[in-house]
Amino acid sequence: xxxRGASLEKACDRICEHAEGLAAGGICSIVTVDxxxxxxxxxGPTISTTYSNALDGIAIGPNVGSCxxxxxxxxxxxxxxxxxxxxxxxxxxxxxxxxxxxGVKACWSSPILxxxxxxxxxFGFYYKDNRGPTPEERMIVAECLDLCSLxxxxxxxxxxxxxxxxxxxxxxxxxxxxxxKALEASLDGATTPLSVLLIDIDHLGRxxxxxxxxxxxxxxxxxxxxxxxxxxxxxxFRVDADEFAVLIENHAAMDLSSIxxxxxxxxxxxxxxxDKHSLPVSVTCGGAIFEPSGPRDVPTFLQHANLAxxxxxxxxxxxxxxxxxxxxxxxxxxxxxxxxxxGALAEDRVEAHYQPIVSLPTQEIxxxxxxxxxxxxxxxxxxxxxxxxxxxxxxxxxxxxDRMLERVARxxxxxLDLGLSFQYVSVNVSMADFNQGNLCERIxxxxxxxxxxxxxxxxxxxxxxxxxxRDGRVAKAIEELRKEGLLVALDDFGTGYASLTHLLNFPVxxxxxxxxxxxxxxxxxxxxxxxxxxxxxxxxxxxxVAEGVETQxxxxxxxxxxxxxxxxxxxxxxxxxxxxxxxxxxxxxxxxHKAKRKLKQSATLMR
Length: 607
Known about the structure:
single chain
């Protein structure tokens, strides 16, 4: 029957009818035992539904009527008087139903066993007389038990396959196929807003590498349970190794944001309990909202949620992003930037341009900042602002840095071979470089290949990198770099938060005052802040450079405040290696001395 498409219930009803036909006067039923040891009625075409319903959910045990006891001990149990036998004493109400509905006085039950010996259910024979089974009935039931075992085991295998196809083994939540099926059904009948929230476990691979997959699995379980507790288990799905999805109905953007905030806060609290083990646990969320008036397009809706998650991961892990058309535009710009950089790397069109860093009192060039540029096919030079998103991309940023290090090491070697004089060249590094790991080894390898001493390179790290610090990787990498003799500069100082705390936690050799403060020196507060930064630098024993100096007025104000080093368009724009070589040649010094005299003349006029 099953092979012809009949349901399990109908097939088992047919087995009961067959047994009742061979043993006149008997009433048959089949119950199943689930994985939690609970009884559930399955078949019994002539048994009372009232009795079956009352039996549902009872746990098997050593004194649980005939079926429950037979299933527990995995052996047949015959009770000749269901009103007097101790096995039935707790279940007098069930005996009353059998007597009232069928005149039953006795019950014989046999366990249905799987081929591996595990109990799947029980086959019950009910009698209207106080008796046990006859030899003939034992033969009938033996045949029926074989059939029941076959069909129940087949159904269990089918259910297991269904579970594997639609449920995650580790967490028990629905898997990606289950999620897509549920999302399609919800969209199809949606009359109110519908939301999808994606939750990504940050850096799960690192947890697995550092602590083992057992710990990684524990993190996955904890995240899944936290999400389910906040959003509802039935709406929670594990859609990837490190990603969960939540299907939320009747929620507006504010509610979606609130749910994500609660999840982020809960995971942050949980992660703090792991501090002693240095386990970095955080999640990032992205979401999208479907409006019933919009097209019922599952791939597009899911793409919006994925774009939001991707944006949240790229702009700052541990947060939440909600899809919008503006966000889609930003992502499109990032994609174009990545395409530009990918092509430039493949075609070797990445160049280093150098902007001089000048001693303000002497007007002498002491170093350069190497700035990344891309030469387009038509000869146009793109500055870093045109592909800034790619510089911050975790999968692309370190590739650009490696190419820049190659260029800088080669160019420094070229200038040293020419006997030109300078102190250092600074190179910018990003969070992508620290995430990639082995930054110190990468730098040492490149500079060794070009026979360029490390003392000529300074690494510039922005405050945002320090602000993104979570698990100590940045601090350890900087400590390793400084031990190798490299200098580290804190770029854009003052534009982030808790800058003084950064100086306590991450010692640096050079502080670069952001252009924002230089532009506001003409008003009182701007000059006061710059003076305070200069005094602080002197007290800490660190070198300080003022960035973005573009006018004679700014240069003179900085000179009067005692600023030792400056950088900006007033002293030179970024140029390629060949033009930088010309700037470094001795004959170029005369023009710098002229600029120094011009600066002094301007200062005299200002006074």
